[in-house]
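Reminder: ligand-aware prediction takes two inputs, not one.
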Amino acid sequence: MTETTDDESQNTPADGPGDAASPAASDAEPLLRVRGLMRHFPITKGLLKRQVGAVQAVDGIDFDVYPGETLGVVGESGCGKSTMGRLITRLDEPTGGSIEFEGKDITHLSTGRLRPMRRDVQMIFQDPYGSLNPRHTIGGIIGTPFRLQGVEPEGGVKKEVQRLLELVGLSPEHYNRYPHEFSGGQRQRIGIARALALKPKLVVADEPVSALDVSIQAQVVNLMDDLQDELGLTYVIIAHDLSVIRHVSDRIAVMYLGKIVELSDRASLYASPLHPYTKALLSAVPVPDPKRRTERDRILLKGDVPSPINPPSGCRFRTRCWKATEVCTTTEPPLVALRTGHQVACHHPEPVTGEPAAAGGAGGKESTGGHA
Ligand SMILES: Nc1ncnc2c1ncn2[C@@H]1O[C@H](COP(=O)(O)OP(=O)(O)O)[C@@H](O)[C@H]1O
Ligand code: SF4
Ligand SMILES: [Mg+2]
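Here is what comes back for the chain with iron/sulfur cluster:
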């Protein structure tokens, strides 16, 4: 552990509590608006299935996603990222809070009434092996969304599927092949083609490259980035570390044990992380220039993420935090803006340094949506 800063300043908001989780400057309406989102999985006991507790997988999170932007969501395994992804795509139903898509409340819509929204919101899954039915041809797999939604594309399904194959860098001749004939990277391209079939507005990608070889990861991430520009897509991309999403995200939400602990535009987060957990995650990202390593010495986090069945009182990160004090045990820190477009939930945040969001200091993505 190399942390030396000892900033005991209390967490005073710069912008007031502000609107939850909006980018620095935006007058656009969010595509997705999430407030107080919760998913508690009941733990039951005995024949009568009496509830004896709950897994607090997602426990009250607020964020917006704006048209054309990429929101990256990071956090260690078990922090509730996949559960959050399944909630906002309504593959799962929240136990609290609300989700609005294009201004419409979709929090508890029934399967039937969700149908129109299913076209507009698609998910890309982590496992390119498990997510494609091995008995179906590629043509059948990518064509399924048309059949499910009763959509007949111009020129027919086959022609449209072949166009989609080309769009994701595969050959139209792959139409009659089976998933086992493809590599992991190619399968993920097939998964992307399937997700894009119905021209969705929002794509939620849950660790889309974690199962792939490192050498292939950048190709798939770049493909997603290109497709976003070409098709005007909005992304929520989930990852367990900051290296994959650093180049593609306009804004980043850091999750810890069912909560968002920091939410910021990318440049500000990389230049000046405010939450100790974010600082630790960032310190694990390889730095291309070893001379810069000294500024950002590796912080090794002790132990694992605690159980979401019985999370620590106060700040959930306190059992692993080198800055924890008494107040961290008793009082949960609220998520507040310490600078425009940069929110953190910590009683003793890191000092705010540098200019926010200026000149892309952290390198990487050019804004495509005007919200960076
Ligand atoms: N269907 C479920 N029933 C009970 N617990 C679950 C279920 N799905 C996920 N969990 C638990 O919720 C927590 C968050 O899981 P998950 O959302 O998969 O996290 P992540 O994607 O960040 O690794 C974990 O403790 C996990 O075991
Ligand atoms: S325990 Fe939580 S609130 Fe306290 S300093 Fe650490 S991160 Fe901040
Ligand atoms: Mg997951």
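The chain has ten helices and twelve strands. The radius of gyration is 21 Å. We will return to this case in the review session.
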